[in-house]
Amino acid sequence: MTAGRTHTVRRESIRVALTATALVAVVYVAVALSVVTVVTGNLTAQVDQRLDQALHHVNGPPDGDDGGYPRPPGDRPFGPPTLIWTVLASGTVVADSSTPVLPAGYVAAVGPVSGTIDGTEMRLQGAQVGDRYVVVAQSLEPVSDARSTIVLAEVLIAPVLLAVVFLGAVAIGRRVAAPIEAARERQLDFTADASHELRTPLSVIEANTTLALAQDRDA
């Protein structure tokens, strides 16, 4: 195979490999976004379930001396604590001393809703308990951390995956295109040889005909 043909095969194989890599990249991005969405939704749903359990825990008369409800027991070691605020009939918000102040916009939160309290992204849910309104919340930092870990892993995997796809597509493209280009070259060589072989007798015939026509002839 000549150098020109080899260059053509390489160029076409790279073009096909780039197209395949682009398609894989689009599919990868779609799958990656789907994974992040599904995982975030599942983890958020688990937080909502724990908030429901916390509301069931406070479904009764208040235990605190100030008319509020204490925090429910943690459901797992080292997990995010469940915060609880009790809104009295007078509008006073009662909570533990270690619990941040509940913003006015979430005093009547029904939820589950997401919001920011004291600079921390929280998931909140509220319910009426007797003559009091109870709002419970839990930090969404574990959800954010899990989402960040997944995104980081996907970002690190993407270049390796796309590089493997590109190199594999180039190798396969060259292996497939090389026999085709070789067959095409043989066809061109055969056509050139056949054309040369046909051109030789035609040239002889043309020369003889020219000489015959150049001689004088009677009517």
Give an overview of the whole structure.
This protein is an alpha+beta fold and 219 residues long. 59% of the residues lie in helices and 14% in strands. It has a five-stranded antiparallel sheet, with helices on one face. Strand 4 (120-129) and strand 5 (132-139) form a beta hairpin. Helix 1 (3-57) packs antiparallel against helix 2 (141-214). The longest helix is centred in the last third of the chain and has 74 residues, at 141-214. It is rod-shaped.
> What is the rounded distance between the termini?
58 Å
What is the alpha-carbon Rg in Å?
40 Å
What does the main sheet amount to?
A: 5 strands, antiparallel
The secondary structure category is alpha+beta
Main features:
2 helices, alpha+beta, five-stranded antiparallel β-sheet
Summarize the structure.
The chain has 219 residues and is of the alpha+beta class.
What are the SSEs and their pairings?
Blueprint: H1 3-57, E1 82-87, E2 93-94, E3 113-117, E4 120-129, E5 132-139, H2 141-214
Antiparallel strand pairs: 1-2, 1-5, 3-4, 4-5
